[in-house]
Amino acid sequence: MGVLDSGRVEVRHLRAFEAVARLRSFTRAADELRITQPALSRTVRQLEDALGVTLVDRSSRHVETTRAGRAFLDHVERVLAELERAFDAIGRQASIGLGFSWLLPDPWAQDTVARFERATGATVRLVRTDDALGAVQQGRVDVAVVRGRVTSPAVRVVHLFDESRVAVCSVHSPLAGRSVLDWEEVPRWPLVVNTASGTTGPWSWPAGGGPETVVETTNFDEWLESVAADRGIGVIPDVAVRRNIHPGVRFVALRGAPESPVSLAFLPRVHNAALRRFVEAAVHSAKGG
Questions:
Q1: Could you tell me the pTM of the whole model?
Q2: Which residues form a coiled coil (predicted)?
Q3: Which CATH number is 195's domain given?
């Protein structure tokens, strides 16, 4: 018998041995653990070398644990069960900060938060911020909902879906009585633009084709109040139609308007299991799952 070297034993070794012993197959265990069979065999062999005993009898047609392997398995199962309980306890205390600059898409946001919290026990903190991308880069939130094209190389962007656009005008605007407005007509009106997080502005048309008059605002609330005051019209994703955002505005359908992309942005080098699970839940909800 060799000399025990427990310092070389890691959780991955225990998980590998437990899977092989339970499934009695290196092939099925490798599939379950999502690693290659040679890698799994090396991991079990490393565990045996560290313990100085043979845990698995590879000579028979079916993989069997040795007497030492069966005795060790009882302890391994208890250790792994305790680890799972510890991970669950920590997971319930974890949280994800989700930044957004204005109206969250529905029902995607509600579905994603519910799916993530139900699966992980962690919570989602909703953080309203005028600069969602900046909040991600400064570490104030873990991930942010962003609309429009994102070209910053500092963040990783995962596209979720595209939103349709709708025009917004004051109840006192001549447009308030219209049922539909063509996209080509929009530049004929003064356009209220949210320069911080808006999806529609002079950049939305070819050079020289945008509105002559632009009213700049720096957040969603300023944008909304400026439209309500009839300083110009606005263009916004149609999620706003399903919300009672202001009694002083009216929505007008837009014909021929390009859709607006909705994405998640987060730092690319952050190794956060909860963040990974949240992005998975977000993509699943976006696909209608």
A1: 0.66
A2: none
A3: 3.40.190.10
